[in-house]
Write a structure and sequence with these properties.
This is F-box domain-containing protein. With about 400 residues, the protein is an alpha/beta fold. Among the domains are: about 5-110, no CATH class; about 300-390, 2-Layer Sandwich (Double Stranded RNA Binding Domain), CATH 3.30.160. The protein has 13 helices and 14 strands. A hairpin with a 4-residue loop joins β12 and β13 (about 365-375).
């Protein structure tokens, strides 16, 4: 079986029969070229030659001995001005760019000179399984008794990406996953708008997965411990990172450690939106968020009416704040004294709540504070939703 690709490459007609077969399957040309290369080798035929015969056969012209020298020399992609090439690559999705850059070294250099941007990238590690999703296309590698299974979309066009191909390999699921992901992360100028990482099981093999720096506009991180979360956060390019979400719920993290390792980073100080789940801050720590547009965090118990006034007055000075959510432990206390201090009426329903609007005379900005009591099976807590209304 190992000699078949060499046998096919030894005769021009053999290769054209392979192309004709791909045309008969009515697959998109990018998928066809990939199948062709997988079968006979990436050095068997350049993409532009494959494209010529693919379209010719698709038009019903089946003369394998057609003399192409009689045709005028066509302008290739590389003959175009750089500005035109840039415009074309802008309109390609990341998967089409990946195909194009694999055609030859010249097209690879052109594609690599422009950023490749994914809208969403999800990577989830489970016990004996790794799943990643790229702009809605899901890949999955699962450990089996004697190796792993790798499931991928049969076609990368989004309309057909739910059709799957599953292959078996002798490698472990981590090594097989890294074989794909390492190639992905080696793409020059790779950017991601939203990166979602869930590495709850301890998987040290993935410690060096992301390059440094990694260009993501936003990242959500759930990891097996605090140090791992911080390690990932520090790989994000400061300034390029606009928002991040870190989840420490269930981990005994001290407030001082969070301030030192997260709130003092460039990533935090240059972000516009931050969500920190699971660590309680003091009221005075909120001033560290004064540059934010959007805030989500936990604070320690707000028990006294003057504390809710301090909270309101502090957040009203945040020039960029547009919305936020603050969660605090009530420890059995009611929000009624808060309503009295803010001169508002309590609304009684499934949750006791009230809404307070405050106009800061210095900034002439109006913030709406909705404060409600929430009780569940774990604890009783309060939620303060903040919204800029004018």
């Amino acid at each position: 079986m190992g000699t078949i690709p060499e046998f096919l490459k030894s005769n021009d007609h053999h290769l054209k029969f392979c192309i004709l077969y791909e045309v008969a399957l009515k697959k998109p040309i990018y998928d066809s070229y990939r199948s062709f290369c997988d079968a006979v080798g990436h050095d068997a035929m350049e993409y532009r030659d494959f494209e010529f015969w693919y379209h010719r056969f698709g038009q019903g012209k089946l003369d394998f001995d057609y003399d192409r020298s009689r045709d005028p020399v066509p302008m290739t992609f590389l003959d175009m001005p750089v500005e035109i090439m840039g415009k074309i690559t802008e309109d390609l999705n990341p998967f089409e760019r990946m195909y194009l850059r694999s055609m030859n070294h010249a097209t690879k250099d052109v594609i690599d000179s422009f950023p490749t941007v994914f809208k969403e990238m999800w990577i989830t590690a489970e016990n004996n399984k790794l799943i990643w999703r790229l702009d809605g296309r899901q890949f999955e590698c699962e450990q089996e008794e004697n190796g792993c299974t790798f499931s991928r979309p049969k076609y990368l066009h989004i309309e057909k990406c739910n059709e799957k191909v599953t292959e078996k390999y002798e490698e472990g699921y981590i090594n097989k996953s890294l074989e794909y992901l390492n190639l992905l992360f080696q793409i020059p100028k790779l950017q991601v708008n939203s990166l979602w990482l869930d590495l709850t099981p301890q998987t040290p093999e993935l410690d060096d997965l992301l390059p440094v720096p990694f260009y993501a506009k936003g990242v959500s991180i759930t990891a097996y411990d605090f140090d791992k979360t911080v390690q990932i956060l520090l790989k994000m390019k400061p300034g390029h990172l606009e928002w991040f979400d870190v989840n420490f719920e269930g981990q005994p993290i001290e407030r001082e450690l969070l301030i030192e390792k997260v709130l003092e980073t460039k990533q935090f100080k240059q972000a516009k939106m931050v969500s920190i789940n699971g660590v309680e801050l003091n009221l005075e720590d909120l001033t560290d968020f004064s540059h934010m547009k959007n805030i989500y965090c936990w604070v320690k118990s707000i028990g006294e009416p003057e504390e809710i006034l301090q909270f309101r007055d502090t957040l009203s000075t945040f020039k960029n704040l547009e919305r936020g959510k603050i969660v605090y432990k009530r420890n059995g206390s009611s929000i009624r004294p808060f309503a009295e201090a803010l001169e508002e009426d309590i609304l009684v329903g499934p949750r006791i709540n009230f809404t307070h609007r405050y106009n800061d005379p210095k900034s002439n900005k109006t913030l709406e504070f909705k404060i409600q009591e929430v009780t569940d099976s774990r604890s009783d807590w309060g939620v303060i939703d903040i919204l800029k209304v004018a």
